[in-house]
Amino acid sequence: MTQTQIKKPKWSGLGVRFISAVALLLLCLAPFYFGGWLWAVLAGLFGGRMIYEWVRMSDPSPRLPAYLAPILGLLAGIVYTVENEIGFSVVAVFVTAFAVAGIQFARSQKEGSSRVIWAILGVFYIIVPTLLMIGMRGNQVGFDTVGFQRLLFIMACVIGADVGAYFGGSTMGGPKLAPKLSPNKTWSGFFTGQALAVLLGAIIGSAVGIGWMAGAALALPIAILSVLGDLFESGVKRKLNVKDTGGLMPGHGGLLDRLDSLMAAIIGAAVCLALFPGIWPG
C-alpha cells in the first residue's frame, strides 16, 4: 500500500479533542452557573481572543488599532449588556463597525490594500454573538433560571450536532456535505448530528418545562445553523488560505475554530425566540 493510500484511523485525534473540550467546559462551569459579571468577563475574554484570531487571519499586516478598536467596542457592548442597556449595546456595535471601517479605509489609502469588508464582518461575526451569550444568560444565579436553561439548551444542541456528526460521519462515511468548504463533512454525519441535537433538545425541553415537542422544534434550526456556522468559517479560511485560526486548543485549532458553530447558533436562537416568544416563556 502506498503512502497516499494509508487512511487515518477512525476517530483519530479523539483523545486530544476530548481533553480540550473538557478543559473548556471546566473553565466555563462556575461563570456559567453564576452569570452576571462573572460570565460576562469570561465571555469577554473569549470574544477578545476571537477578535485577535480574526484580525490576525484576515489582515496580513495588522496594526495595533486593528486589534484595539474592536476590543474596545466589545468592552463597551459588554458593559451595556450586563446593565441591560440593550439599545446602547446595539449602538456600540455599529459605532465599532464604523470605527474599524475607517481605520482600514485610511490604511488602504496609504498601502493600497483594502480590508474594510473583513474588518466590518469581524465585528458582527464575533461581537454580536458574544453579547447575545451574555444577554441571554442574564444576571440570575442558578440552574433553575431561564437564562441558564436557555443557554444550556443552545449549547447542548450545538454539541449534539457536532458530536453526532463526528461519530456518524466517521462510522458511515458516504457523500460529502460540502467538499469545497469542508472535505471531511458528510451527509451521513449531518443527519446523525441533527438527530442527536433534536433528541437532546427534546430531553432538555421536557426537563425544563417547555415540553419535548417545543424542545425538538427549537433544536432543529439551532443545529442546522451550527453546521452552517462551521461551514461559513471553513469558507472564510479557504478564502484567506488559512488552515486554523490559531493553536490555542489542541485538536481544534483556535478558539474561533471551536466556537464558530455556537456563534451562528446563538444568533439563530435569538431570532427564533424573538419571533416566537411563546415557545419559551420568560
UniProtKB/TrEMBL annotation:
GO terms for molecular function: phosphatidate cytidylyltransferase activity. GO terms for biological process: CDP-diacylglycerol biosynthetic process. The chain crosses the membrane at residues 64-80, 86-105, 117-136, 148-167, 187-204, 210-232, 262-280. GO terms for cellular component: plasma membrane. It is found in: Cell membrane. The keyword tRNA-binding does not apply. Pfam families: CTP_transf_1 (PF01148). It is a multi-pass membrane protein. It catalyses: a 1,2-diacyl-sn-glycero-3-phosphate + CTP + H(+) = a CDP-1,2-diacyl-sn-glycerol + diphosphate. Pathway: Lipid metabolism; Phospholipid metabolism; CDP-diacylglycerol biosynthesis; CDP-diacylglycerol from sn-glycerol 3-phosphate: step 3/3. Its EC number is 2.7.7.41. Keywords: Cell membrane, Lipid biosynthesis, Lipid metabolism, Membrane, Nucleotidyltransferase, Phospholipid biosynthesis, Phospholipid metabolism, Transferase, Transmembrane, Transmembrane helix. Belongs to the CDS family. This is Phosphatidate cytidylyltransferase.
